[in-house]
Write a structure and sequence with these properties.
This protein is mainly α and 329 residues long. It is built from 14 helices and no strands. It starts with 22 loop residues before the first helix and ends with a helix.
Amino acid sequence: MSISKTTRKPNTNTKKAKTPQPPEASAAARPRRLYLPIYKLFRLKRVQHPVQLPSVWQLTKKTGVLLWRHRWLFLWIGAVYTVLNIIFVRGLSGGADVNSLKNQLGQGIHGNAGQLATGAAAFTGLLAASGNGNSATAAVYQIVLGIIVSLAVIWTLRQVTAGEQVRLRDPFYKGMYPFVPFILVMAVLMLQMVPFLVGAGVYSYAVTYGIAVGTAERLLWGLLFAVLTLISVYTLCSSLFALYIVTLPDMTPLKALKSAKLLVHYRRPAVLRKLLFLQVALLVLASIVMLPIVLFVPFLAAWMFFPLGTLALVVAHAYMYTLYRELLA
């Protein structure tokens, strides 16, 4: 009796068992995303952002290092802006007569403290006159030149932070393409300034024409002014960064404004503190530089104000762009 052995063929229909993978490998294969709580305009409970921004001193240090490494490039942009500003906006007259303004303010004032107060008042008058051209046409030229130089500085900052080589002509040749979107974002910024302007006008009218006479009435009108100011500050705190986002290729103003709003979610107080530090620091540095000139050589004050204003514009954009990159991190 013979026993026949039959060989079994392997079943090809059976699926291969998957080898289990460790959870670390599967987690590493997925892209990491930062999940934030759903944003609400009025939230009683404060939500802290998981990414902490650097301090103002760290931002200032990074800004200084960036400007110093490419100082000749930014000095060239500033020199072009200063020359064009003198030609098209101020003319060869040099602007305000600081010497006569100082003499008018210093009549009947004696002593070192009085002279310092006179110099501070003359410097304030010089700041107030810096935004006013000799005519309406000069004011338009000043706005256009400010936009052109801002685009050149922002384009240069983006290129040098990316490690690209920039020639002297490139900022004004290659950085002008988002001119119209940049203007549209600036128009939105002006609209967001309307509550502040309305509040300032209403409060000034109420105090000047005797509507708010007592202390309590002035406090109420001042409270209205403060609320309207907070509305403008709240919206501007995010929309300022849209000026840098809109300069990206294929970026529309609406997308830039939405992206800027997402950048500052749950970080508005920290961003606002850094923006206020920039304003105070620029004012203090300008006072340190200009007060001795106003006191001792007032005939040079108006001429020195041109390069100082240009330097302030470049430093402000560099600081804001550094903060913008930190928000992206």
